[in-house]
Description:
Layout: H1 3-9, E1 16-19, E2 21-23, E3 35-44, E4 48-53, E5 58-62, E6 68-74, E7 85-92, E8 98-105, E9 116-119, E10 127-138, E11 142-148, E12 151-157, E13 163-168, E14 179-186, E15 192-200
Parallel strand pairs: 5-15, 6-15, 8-12, 8-13
Antiparallel strand pairs: 1-2, 3-4, 3-14, 4-5, 6-13, 7-8, 7-10, 9-10, 10-11, 11-12, 14-15
Amino acid sequence: MSASIQKILRGTVASAILASGFIGSAVLAQTPALTGIRGAITSVGSEKLVVKNNRGGEQTVALDQNTRVAAISIANINDIKPGSYIGAAGIPQPDGSQKALEVHVFPPSMAGTGDGHRPFDLAPNSTMTNGTVGDVVASNGRTLTLKYKGGEKKIVVPEDVPIVSIEAGERSLLVVGAKVVLRARKNADGSLTAVSVSVGKNGVTPPM
């Protein structure tokens, strides 16, 4: 992975998402008021995408030289071990734990991406926690201890929660029909420019 890709991914949400996060959430923690777009690509140009969002509307989003692409594929919870680096979107529970809505597994080369715990926009009151897995307890799914700089969270992962892996991707993945999660900045004229695009590989729908 190039140094420029690593720079844009670190400090993200994950995001995001960059992923999100992922990376699909890339740069959200650093840049205020990014717009999240989730949907499918309906048109691709060298400098723009048209995305039909999950609400049925279409949005045109520009691509520039700084737009980063992340590839999303299916992962298995059994691949998550103590020492794995992951991101988990979740909902706070009364006991202080987080009930996972989705889990993103990062490759070792991206350990440290978006480290921390912060609000997220997947659902009302949702959060994103990126950190290193400590304990893994198998009971009614999995309970993970996720450690990050300055704290740790217990993440309860139900059996039906989507689990995906995140890696740096190429723009060749941005094709008509591909499912994406974008983070875009709003320009002075009201147009949008993508900061990051998380795109599903082989028909995968990014859960972010």
